[in-house]
Amino acid sequence: MYVLKFGGSSVANANNIKIVADILLAYPSKPIVVVVSALGGITDQLLLTGDKAACGDESYRELLSSVELRHLDTARQLLPVTNQSASLSKVKQYCNEIEDLCEGIFRLQELSDRTKDKLVSYGELLSSQLLTAYLQTQNAQAEWLDSRQLIKTDSRFGNAHVLEGITHTLIEARVPKDKNNIYVAPGFIASNSHDFTTTLGRGGSDYTAAIFAAVLANVRSGDHIVSVRHPYTWAQRMFDNLLPRFQVETTYVDGRCVENFQTASRENTRVIYLESPVCWT
């Protein structure tokens, strides 16, 4: 089982998404869970759209149109014409939902933390669906995972805390380890006990990847992890603060050379944690 995370710059456009897909398809063994951020800059654009709508500034509609156009253009550049219909419909569906949400924000001139989480979640939903669709055109056994159904949190919208027990159970039940599949999951997003969308804080996509890695590797007391040096904030916090409580040790290596991971691995190594762009991928 491999768990990989790709940030916004890695999936910023159709060409970059194809590069990510090539990396995934080249892996000698599977299954793979790949966690992706929104297309580069989209999260900030969605936040600005919400802020403008809350201020009664009708220019939010122009921002929203540019978000939709960027994803439609990416889908058209990424997918063969014969495979575009379903993805274009999905992009339109999500963008219509964003439009309805922003219309409500505009009319109320109010943007709560709960609504903001719902709004920004669409960036990861869109990017992960596009990557999944492209992998499927390459004859990969690719399957989309809805992180909101797998990662459960409290209701601290904007910076939710993960409920470890139920999250562990849901991920283990949903992601089989005996299939040669590529599972694509949107980073950053989760949901609370009422199924309202929550987010794990800015930079939360790396936290999402760390959660999948810890659960799917069945990390237990005495196990060992090898990670790229200087992972993103939430992954580092999990490795440095949470897992040591369970006597799980993490070794950090320079991710630009695959031999470093081989050298650092031990008999009790259960997870090799990679992040783009700080590893050889």
Describe this structure in words.
- Helix 1 (14-26) crosses helix 3 (60-78), helix 2 (42-54) runs antiparallel to helix 5 and helix 8 crosses helix 9 (233-242).
- The protein has 281 residues and is of the alpha/beta class.
- The protein has ten helices and nine strands.
- It has a seven-stranded parallel sheet, sandwiched between helices. The chain has a two-stranded antiparallel ribbon with strand order 5-6.
- The chain is 50% helix and 15% strand.
- The radius of gyration is 19 Å and the shape is globular.
Short description:
Helices cover 50% and strands 15% of the residues. The protein has 281 residues and is of the alpha/beta class.
Mean pLDDT: 91
- Rounded to an integer in angstroms, the radius of gyration calculated over CA atoms is 19 Å
Helix and strand string, N-terminal first? EHEHHHHEHHEEEHEHEHE
| β-strand amount | 5-15%
- Give the class from helix and strand content and strand pairing: alpha/beta
Helicity, as a percent range: 40-55%
- Within the largest sheet, what's the order of strands? 3-4-2-1-9-7-8
Characterize the overall form: globular
Oligomer state of the chains in this structure: single chain
Number of strands: 9
